[in-house]
Write a structure and sequence with these properties.
Layout (H helix, E strand, L loop, with lengths): L1 H12 L7 H27 L7
Length: 54
């Protein structure tokens, strides 16, 4: 996920050709959304975990 968040802003700041400016600004937002979704999935399954019982 860190690679996804960092690639487009880094390519923009280093002046790579072909870096899209919209993805440069949206990639941190998209990364935060994926982080929120993964936290909710973790909480969902952590509540239902029962362990081995021993």
């Amino acid at each position: 996920m860190i690679g996804f968040i960092a690639y487009y802003p880094a390519s923009f700041f280093f002046g790579r050709k072909g870096s899209s400016t919209i993805l440069t600004y949206l990639s941190p937002v998209i990364g935060a959304c994926f982080f929120w979704i993964s936290c909710k999935v973790w909480e969902f399954f952590a509540e239902r975990y029962a362990g081995t019982g021993s």
